[in-house]
């Protein structure tokens, strides 16, 4: 649940989601759910030459299970806090 | 569970031509959208057809060819989006990406088999073009709802006790207790210090279950670039 809560706090920020098929999509985080499904707005593909088919779409729903990385704004992350919280969560699991 | 796009022609025989659902699996019809064309991969639009959105999958059935239809489970839909940019595609549509079965070296992006026939299981993109584009936002929302109804199936989880994550060196636990009595050569006499925590009150009376050495003398030495120990004896 930690990252669900964490992403909820990031709603409204620009993120880049990299999928397991190597596609990277940049957009504004609109919402996230408990499965870490992600909805982005104003999305655009990061490497347009590699993926010409998906130039720009308005809203996009990404299945949580296909996400490889979520790249966050550097000043949007308190690394130490997240580190400690993740450790606590893992211990408690 | 089938990964990827596949043919689907299982229609009810009552003449309505609606798809047969798997009610034993709790599959329900969520929405029917007539006048939807479909474009698989780079192929041209196929129409006329009807889109059936169930709680488990998407089904597109041709209105004219009763043997033609396609289905894909929501579990296989990696992403879906509303595409309105004419530079991306000529008509406003729902763009979907489909997860395909992981084959070893899929360098060949072609979705046609060597015989020229279309291999549906290799289709990675599908566009659904409603004749009335005002339906796009509603369709997008229904897709979202159905995707949320289909989270990853939960595998049989191991018992908590077997899932041994290690967080730090001082957590190392050496299993002892009744079953391993014969294996430990260390006596439990008060004179034996091995295995007892320094400063562990009452530790002498306890059976040795844990090897917890909290004393910093046993820690790895810190790397020191200029060791200033005296060398003359």
From TrEMBL, chain A:
Entry's Gene Ontology molecular function annotations: RNA binding
Listed Pfam families: LSM (PF01423)
Family according to the record: Belongs to the snRNP Sm proteins family.
InterPro entries in the record: LSM_dom_sf (IPR010920), Sm (IPR047575), Sm_dom_euk/arc (IPR001163), U6_snRNA_Lsm2 (IPR016654)
Any Gene Ontology CC annotation: U6 snRNP
Domain Sm residues, every copy: 2-76
Species per Swiss-Prot/TrEMBL record: Brassica cretica
Keywords: mRNA processing, mRNA splicing, Nucleus, Ribonucleoprotein, RNA-binding, Spliceosome
Compartments reported by the entry: Nucleus
SUPFAM superfamilies: Sm-like ribonucleoproteins
PROSITE patterns per the UniProt record, alphabetical: SM
Function recorded in the entry: Component of LSM protein complexes, which are involved in RNA processing.
Domain of life: Eukaryota
Protein name: Sm-like protein LSM2
Example GO BP: mRNA splicing, via spliceosome
Alphabetized SMART domains for the sequence: Sm (SM00651)
UniProtKB/TrEMBL annotation, chain B:
GO BP terms: cell volume homeostasis; chloride transport; mRNA cis splicing, via spliceosome; spliceosomal snRNP assembly
One GO location term (cellular component): methylosome
Gene3D superfamilies registered for this protein in UniProt: Pleckstrin-homology domain (PH domain)/Phosphotyrosine-binding domain (PTB)
InterPro entries listed in its UniProt record: ICln (IPR003521), ICln/Lot5/Saf5 (IPR039924), PH-like_dom_sf (IPR011993)
Main subcellular location: cytoplasm
Annotated spans, Disordered: 176-199
Alphabetical UniProt keywords: Cytoplasm, Nucleus
Positions in coiled-coil regions: none
Pfam families recorded: Voldacs
Domain of life (superkingdom): Eukaryota
Compartment(s) of residence: Cytoplasm; Nucleus
Family of this protein: Belongs to the pICln (TC 1.A.47) family.
The protein's name in its UniProt record: Chloride conductance regulatory protein ICln
């Amino acid at each position: 649940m930690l990252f669900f809560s964490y992403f909820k706090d990031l709603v409204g920020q620009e993120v880049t989601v990299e999928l397991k098929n190597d596609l990277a999509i940049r957009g504004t985080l609109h919402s996230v759910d408990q499965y870490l499904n992600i909805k982005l707005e104003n999305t655009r593909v990061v490497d347009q030459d590699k993926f010409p088919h998906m130039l720009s779409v308005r809203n996009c729903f990404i299945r949580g299970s296909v996400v490889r990385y979520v790249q966050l704004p550097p000043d949007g992350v308190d690394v130490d806090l997240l580190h400690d919280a993740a450790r606590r969560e893992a211990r408690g699991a | 569970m089938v990964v990827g796009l596949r043919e689907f022609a299982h229609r009810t025989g009552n003449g309505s031509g609606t798809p047969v659902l798997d009610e034993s699996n709790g599959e329900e019809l969520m929405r029917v959208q007539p006048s939807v064309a479909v474009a698989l991969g780079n192929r041209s639009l196929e129409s006329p057809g009807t889109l059936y959105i169930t709680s488990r999958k998407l089904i597109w059935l041709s209105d004219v060819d009763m043997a033609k239809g396609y289905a894909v489970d929501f579990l296989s839909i990696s992403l879906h989006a509303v595409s309105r940019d004419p530079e991306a595609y000529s008509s406003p549509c729902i763009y979907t990406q489909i997860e395909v079965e992981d084959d070893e070296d899929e360098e060949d992006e072609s979705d046609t088999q060597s015989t020229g026939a279309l291999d549906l299981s290799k289709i990675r993109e599908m566009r659904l073009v409603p004749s009335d584009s005002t339906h796009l936002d509603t369709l997008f929302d229904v897709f979202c709802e159905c995707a949320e109804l289909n989270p990853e199936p939960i595998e049989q989880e191991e018992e908590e006790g077997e899932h041994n994550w290690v967080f730090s060196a001082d957590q190392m636990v050496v299993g002892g207790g009744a079953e391993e009595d014969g294996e430990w050569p260390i006596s439990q006499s008060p004179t034996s210090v091995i295995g007892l925590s320094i400063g562990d009150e009452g530790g002498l009376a306890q059976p040795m279950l844990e090897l917890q050495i909290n004393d910093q003398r046993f820690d790895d030495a810190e790397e020191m670039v200029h060791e200033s120990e005296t060398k003359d004896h």
